[in-house]
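Q: I'm writing a short explainer about LTA synthase family protein for a general audience and would like to include a description of its predicted shape. Could you first generate the structure from this sequence?
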Amino acid sequence: MKFLQSLNGRPLRVWGLAALVAWLIFQVTRLALLGHSVMLSEQAPAGLLGGVAMGMLRDLPVVLMLAWPWAMFELIFKRKWADRLRWPLWTIYVFTLIFVGVSEGVFWDEFSVRFNFIAVDYLVFTTEVIGNIRESYPVGKIVAALAAFTLLIVWALRRPLRNAVAAESGRASQLVWALSLMLAVCFIGYKLPLPEFFTNSFANELADNGWRSFIAAARQNKLDYRQFYATRPDAEVMADLQRFSGHGQVSASNTGLLKASHAPSKQPNVVVIMMESMSAEYMETFGNKQGITPNLDRLAKEGLLFTRLYATGTRTVRGLEALSAALPPQPGAAVVRWPNITNLNTLGSTLAARGWEPNFIYGGYGMFDNMNSYFESQAYKVTDRKLFQEGLVQFENVWGVADEHLFDQVLINMDKDVAAGKHVFAHIMTTSNHRPFTYPDGRIDIPSPAKREGGVKYADYAIGRFFEMAKQKPWFDNTIFLIVADHCASSSGKTKIPVFRYHIPAIIYAPKLVVPKQVDTLASQIDLVPTLLAMLGLEGDDHFVGRDILKMPPEEGRALLSTYQNVGYLKGDLMTVLQPKRKIETFRISADGKEAQLVPNEQKMTDEAIAYFQGAALLMEKHGESGRGSGR
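A: Of course. Here's the predicted structure. Afterward I'll give you a sentence or two in plain language.
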């Protein structure tokens, strides 16, 4: 421990020791994440070492930020109180550093990134998150082990800390150090940019620091498109957006007058089943050999299958946004998370104007991610786990009830509404294919709790069971079902927007109404809303940005993808990525979507990309200006 006691032969001060300990723990954390990337994400070590080296420098402002309170501690407290408080606070400090490092490992295992806006959200929705952690990991044993390890580290550091205390000088000198640290943090941490130096996203994440990324995400949970991204004249953007949508008007507000189409007695029910984290790669239809989705594969053969459909994002709220408002993804938080958004142009409002009864049915607590508030504000009738029929739920975990119980509630709701003469539109959100992957025993041949394969197979079992029961209902033959994922199970990849991590299944199933077919046109999640409306005979009644996939020329197919800060426009094998600071890059995407080669920007692609994403921002601005975005 001698190297912890002095630097260049001079004894460390307390803040210096605190800084050095933090820096060392950051390096251990980074090496652990490097090992995870190499062994589990199959990344080449040589491509990541630059990120590791860069990260050692990027840690400095965070290290100084963590050291500054120790300089203030020694300055403010008199020796008597400082001696009493120093060891307990030092123990808490070391434990916090270790705990955050382990937490970063858990988060990386799930998302392959440093802390981001998802981690910020997790601190808001503590019930689900803490419950999920408790059900997924032996928390008590982990915390006990971390506490024991902390005590061991503190004991090992007892002499360096004593020497550091002895090295403290007069208050004038301590004040100079405290002010110097504060200025250094402000200058290095806020004035100097932190660009992405590497084309490999894993390397960029390794070069970052979890403390820094968390603070940045907390400060930037909503991004103003005009301020940060490339723009074009508004009039040109809106003209292009109307042309791309295939009709004369697009809108964020529900202001359109719907034409008469179906007679009320012939209106089919519409059921959208959004499956949690159901990546296309899990289905045999798309090449999987594990046999974990037999029911989905059967439905894909018997229904209308979209083989090249891509999610707009990597979170449930993005999927909900796409399948309700059909808006291109915007940087920052999804519209579902925005407060006080009312009377938005949604699939539910469009159908409600023609006599359907909109419902949102969720297996979890709808307060999570603002789901209940969002859908209630759009005039959906909301049913979450709190409102399920008493005695119905026999199995649940922190994220939600078992999918089979969710579907049982759906059947109850639909029976009741149909019996009352209503035409039902139900948007259903499942939860079982989510960590901790627990489900009722005896349903599938993978025991619970399980890994992802178990969650996928149980979710497939539940949907198969649902359709077997639904087929016995008198309303089944007059119901159109859309089965689609909210997003993929993983968002990790080597590129800024790893295309293969956005490929999701989408199946329209209605044996008496829809002819089985395979559609290979490249399409976006937002296109499913106009496609459904066109199938219902309501083509032209909507004002959405998406297009009817069935009438879209294959050469005009495109997908809209997003991370938190980057938005991508995929057309053919090219993807244009719009980034903060008005940066634009274009990549040639490999056939499997896993590789991306940087190529020169193409003006036509750039203009189209800006039209979609700037256009979405303009629609929401106009929505707010109309007064329809004000409080309920």
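A: For your explainer, you could say: Residues 393 and 405 are 6 Å apart (CA to CA).
Q: Perfect, that's easy to follow.
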